[in-house]
Amino acid sequence: MEIIWVLISFLSGSIPFAVVIAKTFKGIDPRKEGSKNPGTTNVARLCGFQYGLLTLVCDILKGTVPVFLSIWFFDKTDYEWLPSACAFAAFIGHIKSPFLGFHGGKGVATGIGVLIPLAFPPLLAAVCLCVLVIALTGYVSAGALTLYTALPFCYYFFDSSRWIPLSLVMLAIVLWTHKSNMKRLLKGEEKSWRKSKN
Ligand code: G3P
């Protein structure tokens, strides 16, 4: 049963809310326009802030719900590994969605979602840093990279070291999904949130 729950977590993470929301409300496929990323930032860029916000909430929840339920339903001592496995499965589901031909988004919002039920205060600290970087630089990708780089340190400082291995794996994957953003940031070509009307 627990393996099935990991699979359900993967499928939950796979739901391509960015594509569904942008296509339903604006007839736009975010995989074909803007940064071509089916994620919050690109939906906000192409469809407007409120649709980006809706995508953000849905992408967070599709990660939070299966991980929360795995903690709620399964015995913590027998299945200590399960929340991490479900968290990782939902995170990967977003990045390699079977509904999008095993392509997908960059994992930022769903990654935040899966981590909410595990240890909230260190995540909140990393999210605050992310918001600060976005506010100061205007680059959402720089904020996302800051968040995932800060996470292992936040887990350490908030006495939640058991989540450090998961956060390091997620950092490696987020660095990989943000390769094109990092190249643009280094060249000074990344689109700022402040003037990102495509
Ligand atoms: O959520 C992903 C964000 O970090 C960058 O998105 O569309 O600017 O590549 P985008």
Automatic annotation (TrEMBL):
Compartments reported by the entry: Cell membrane
TM ranges: 6-25, 46-69, 114-140, 160-177
Lipid metabolism as UniProt keyword: yes
Pfam families (alphabetical): G3P_acyltransf
Reactions accelerated catalytically: an acyl phosphate + sn-glycerol 3-phosphate = a 1-acyl-sn-glycero-3-phosphate + phosphate
Biological role: Catalyzes the transfer of an acyl group from acyl-phosphate (acyl-PO(4)) to glycerol-3-phosphate (G3P) to form lysophosphatidic acid (LPA). This enzyme utilizes acyl-phosphate as fatty acyl donor, but not acyl-CoA or acyl-ACP.
Record-given protein name: Glycerol-3-phosphate acyltransferase
Gene encoding the protein: plsY
